[in-house]
Write a structure and sequence with these properties.
Layout: H1 17-29, H2 34-43, H3 50-69
Helix pairs in contact: 1-2
Length: about 70
């Protein structure tokens, strides 16, 4: 059995009571603990990352190719 790596570091921030309640509600809506939800959000690919940009470029290129293939002359 492979032992999972332990999480030994933490990241923190201060929020208001209202902000904390909103975060808890979002986590509950996804059936996650607040820690699980925050971790998933922090580690999710950034919308401005090269990976996300590459995926978007691929979608745009595919759309263009499909539009050209369905155009006049085909």
């Amino acid at each position: 059995m492979v032992k999972a790596s332990l999480r030994t570091k933490s990241v923190g921030t201060k929020v208001s009571d209202e902000e904390y309640a909103a975060l808890e509600a979002r986590a509950r809506a996804e059936n996650l603990t607040l820690s699980e939800w925050v971790r998933a959000r922090l580690l999710a690919p950034d919308a401005n990352s090269a990976e996300a940009a590459g995926e978007l470029l691929g979608e745009v290129l595919l759309s263009e190719v499909l539009a050209l293939a369905g155009g006049p002359g085909f």
